[in-house]
């Protein structure tokens, strides 16, 4: 375990969050928003985890590169992350693809999304750059990764974790020697290589990289001049440094942040409807795998000013109640029954409605007598009177997006087609 000590290196670092991806496997949830802007955990967005890790680690200069359908993401960032001040040597820049290099060039890849903003990075003059993906759920102290980067003398330090080998094809997969120097790196291989002596396990990149800024800029310029490059960290920059430089692996277990109740290092890619539903529903457990109530490592976000949640009616069969559930502010549970569910801000659930294992995004209306089981309901949806979902798989699949695991995603256009 690496220990924090001495002058925090985070003071001399800038975090650069790559938040331009669509996340197409989330289907209609990303029709109007980028994956990092998707709601999570009752109050937050997915991107808040990477940003909160940066703030809690002591990093006070942050850039966020956006591209795909960025309006809701930018609005969220402007509302919730505008407390960093230049006069305190802090900064928060939202960096849409703005053709800074060419009038006709959008971000062509993750590396290009940094390359096109080199002038902004240089204006802050950070000694270190922490490159982050903006679409994962985890708690991590980047200061400890910075410490290892300096101690090892690496050209690049790549955060990694152990994953089942057959699940590693969606990651960059690496081989390391006894000193954790990366000896091989393959981006999203069809047949992921196993760890030595562990045929069922692979060492996967988390898409988190630490560079000395001067070396990163040198590599970005070299890569931009290569006509054969995909302009991507995982496909181009990291493999080049593995072959020609000193690339070192950083184990997530060395810097993950866990509250006393959290039994394992928690990291989730909520990139499918099933994974998204499961990660939200997991929060309703008595002792959840991810502790949102850990005040020592808070989850920062845009906090709406809302009244408390309200529960009304106390009659048999018409009782406003919730069990093993998270209910956010400005919700009115009016004679509805909720179990093992996560309900976001501003939801109205009316009499005789029941929700079971439901993820209800903000400002939805659940009308009377509706019964929803194992669903994700997109923001602003009005569920009509008496709608039943989760009891007839064939009917559900005709009307909504039903996953192989039986989760139904419901959007307003799907509801409108029922009329």
TrEMBL record:
Domain Glucose-1-phosphate adenylyltransferase/Bifunctional protein GlmU-like C-terminal hexapeptide: 307-410
Top-level class of the enzyme under EC nomenclature: transferase
Reactions performed catalytically: alpha-D-glucose 1-phosphate + ATP + H(+) = ADP-alpha-D-glucose + diphosphate
Keywords: ATP-binding, Carbohydrate metabolism, Glycogen biosynthesis, Glycogen metabolism, Nucleotide-binding, Nucleotidyltransferase, Transferase
Could play a key role in the communication between the regulatory and the substrate sites, annotated site positions: 67, 106
GO MF, one annotated term: glucose-1-phosphate adenylyltransferase activity
Listed pathway(s): Glycan biosynthesis; glycogen biosynthesis
Domain Nucleotidyl transferase, first and last residues per copy: 16-284
Residues holding alpha-D-glucose 1-phosphate: 107, 172, 187-188, 205
Function recorded in the entry: Involved in the biosynthesis of ADP-glucose, a building block required for the elongation reactions to produce glycogen. Catalyzes the reaction between ATP and alpha-D-glucose 1-phosphate (G1P) to produce pyrophosphate and ADP-Glc.
Name under which the protein is recorded: Glucose-1-phosphate adenylyltransferase
